[in-house]
Amino acid sequence: MILLPLCTKPLAPQTSCPPLCGCRFKNNKPHPWSKDVSSFIVYPEAANQTIYSTRLEENDIGNYSCILRNETHAIKHEIELRLQDKLDNPMPTFRPKDLVVSVGESARFYCEAFVGNLYLPDATNEIVWNQMFDDHPHNVTDSMQVNVTREEGQIIGSYLSIPNIQTHHYGRYRCQIVSGNSAQKLNLSVLLSPVEVTAITDTQLSVLVYVMAALLLVLVILFAWICRTVQQRTNNKKDNRCSAQFIANNEHENV
User: Fold this and answer.
1) Cα gap 27→63, rounded to integer Å
2) Mean pLDDT confidence for 167-195
3) Which of 23, 87, 147, 152 is the most exposed place for a label (fewest CB within 10 A)?
4) Global pTM?
C-alpha cells in the first residue's frame, strides 16, 4: 500500500475549491478520480488527510497536489509520483526551507527523502546535518538532530533544531542523505539568515529632523510662557505689598 500525505487537515471530496476548504488534484484534475486517472482514494485512518493505493498502476504516475484555502490565504503542496523497478539514488520528498531568524530565537529545519527498501543485509541509510563553511562540512554547535522514518523505513527524514540562535549559527546548512543501495549522496541545502535592519532613508531622516525641531520650538515657547507667567505673578505680589505698605503709612500719619 502506498500513502501520499498531501494535506494537513481533513478534506471532503469535491469537484471545486471554494473558500474555507481544501482540494486535491492529480495533473490539475480534481478529486475524486476515475480509474483511468488514478487508483488513489482517501485514507480514513488518517482522518482523510492522506490518499492511498493498494496497488500502483501506470496511470497513477503524475503530479499530485493539495490546496488549503481560506478567505485570505492559500497553501499548495505538491508531490510527483514516479514508478521504477529499482531505486538508484535517494529521491527528495521534502526540501528544507530558508529561514530568517533574530538572535536569541529558535530555528528548526526538516529534510526528507525516499530511499526504498535495502537490498543488502548489511546496508544502512544515513542522514546527517552539517553547517557549511567554504564548502566544507562542520558539526552544528548547540543544536539537536532527530532522525525519523516512515513507510516501513522507505522514507527517512531529519529535524535540525537550534534553540538559541547566535551570530555564529548564521549561514548555509546541508542535509546529506546516503542510501545503502547507492554510492551517490543526496545533498539538500538551506540558508539561515538574520533579520535585516532597515536603514532610515533621506526622506524619513528629514521628517524626523522637522518633527524634532517642531517639538523643540514648542518646548521653548512653553518655557518662555511659564517664565513670563511666574514673573508677572511675582511683580503682582510686589505691587500688592507696596500698596498695602503705602496705605498703612497714610493711616498712621492721619492718626
Assistant:
1) 5
2) 90
3) 152
4) 0.56
- State how far the Cα of 254 lies from the Cα of 57, in Å rounded to an integer: 131
Determine contact, residues 27/63, Cβ cutoff 8 Å. Answer: yes
Q: What confidence score (pLDDT) does residue 50 get?
A: 80
Integer Cα distance of 169 and 197 in angstroms: 18
Give pLDDT, residue 152: 84
Element (H, E) at 207: helix 202-254
DSSP SS3 for 57: coil
The count of other CB atoms within 10 Å of the CB of residue 32 is: 15
Question: How far is 161 from 169, CA to CA, in rounded Å?
Answer: 11
Angle, CA of 250, 252 and 255, to the nearest 5°: 110
Range 2-81 classified under CATH 2.60.40.10:
yes
CATH topology of domain 91-194: Immunoglobulin-like (2.60.40)
Name every residue whose Cβ is closer than 8 Å to that of residue 110 and which is 6 or more positions away in sequence.
94, 96, 157, 158, 159, 160
pLDDT tens for 201-245 read: 778 888 888 899 999 999 999 998 888 888 887 777 666 565 555
Where does the chain hold its CATH 2.60.40.10 domain(s)? 2-81, 91-194
In 3D space, the residue among 59, 62, 60, 66 whose CA is nearest the CA of residue 25 turns out to be 66
Count, residues in the chain: 255
Amino acid at 133: F
Q: Which residues pair with 112 in a beta bridge?
A: 94, 157
